[in-house]
Structure formats: C-alpha cells, structure tokens
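PT: before anyone asks, these are the final sequences, not the draft ones from last week. 229 residues across everything. Please model them as a single complex and drop the result in this thread when it's through.
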Amino acid sequence: AQKVTQAQTEISVVEKEDVTLDCVYETRDTTYYLFWYKQPPSGELVFLIRRNSFDEQNEISGRYSWNFQKSTSSFNFTITASQVVDSAVYFCALSEIKTGNQFYFGTGTSLTVIP
Amino acid sequence: KAGVTQTPRYLIKTRGQQVTLSCSPISGHRSVSWYQQTPGQGLQFLFEYFSETQRNKGNFPGRFSGRQFSNSRSEMNVSTLELGDSALYLCASSNVLQGSDEQYFGPGTRLTVT
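LR: through. Structure below.
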C-alpha cells in the first residue's frame, strides 16, 4: 500500500498566483515524521521542511507555508505569490520510527510557474 | 561543510555488466541511504547503512548490494545489469538513526543501461 499519495501529477500556474500541493499519508505509527523536498531540474533533492507527528502547528517560511492535519492525514504545502524559480518537482515523504531513515516518498508534483 | 558527493555523475553500461557507485556523506554523518529514481516508479528506497552495518533494505533483487566503510563512505553495486536498472541513483546522509531528521541528498548518479 502506498504510504504517501500526491494526487497532483502536474500543476501549472501563472507567476504571482498562489498554489497548494497536496500530500496524504498513511501510517499506523503514532510517532512519525513528514518532509517536503524540492527537486529542481538539476536533480538534487533539497530539503524544505520537517514535521513530527506531535506537532500540528502550521508553519510559514517566507512565501512557503505548510498545513499539517492529523485528522485527515494530510500535510499540504502552499506557495504564495509563486515565482518562476519555484518551478520544480516537489516530493512529500514519510519516515516511521520503526524503519528509521527509510523514507517513503510520494510520486511528486511537477510545478511549472509561467512568467 | 561540504555536501553529499556522488561519483560518477553519469554512467553508461551494457546489459549484463556490473557497476559500482560511490557516495561520500556529509562529514560526521554516519547514516547513508540509497534511493533509485525512475519516471515510472518514483523514488524507491534501496538500503541504509549505519556504522558499516546494513540497517534496512528495500524491495530490490539481490543484484543490488552495498557496503559502508569505516569513514562512512558508501558504495552500491549492481550486478548483471538490466535495461530496467536505468535510473538516477541518489544517496542521502543523516546524522540520526530514527528518521527524525532530514536527509541530505547528493546530486545523484545517472545510470543508463543499453
């Protein structure tokens, strides 16, 4: 069973629009961690944020914000006032305490920001 | 601090050959994980090493193997290459065991099997 689902395969927005990338996860662990990574065309995965299962506070970092809701098993990512440099593939990932550093990645959402 | 480095960056091999990829983690990181990324399957976990011991292994055939050295550098080996092994192989390092911290990824090795 897929542990992380990113239903949006591709999204295109016009520059300065807001965009939300969805992530739904599945786990039976009570302690787990959620991550978002960005993969620009160069290929290297860049860490964006980490959340643990006990911290449901939403977080904002500049134009980026994250909404973690345990009730719906979702960890969504919003980019406000998108820019061309935001064009990349974004991955949501889950790690469970019992499997340590084994990350389960979603299939990614390819975001294109059109100037 | 230098980031995770992977060598080589690009590799072309023929079916049936074997290949060895190398990964040097961030200084001080003792956990090294390997992932295979393909358009069809996405990012899939291969295995993780910590202090020279394999801690976790993904669902890959025995042709995929790895090891870690005392300086934390890691290698992965794929024997009897198949066309389907063409992929971007990513290495990640971490300084924790529980998956509670972010992993830092290298630029990857793009393997093409012809």
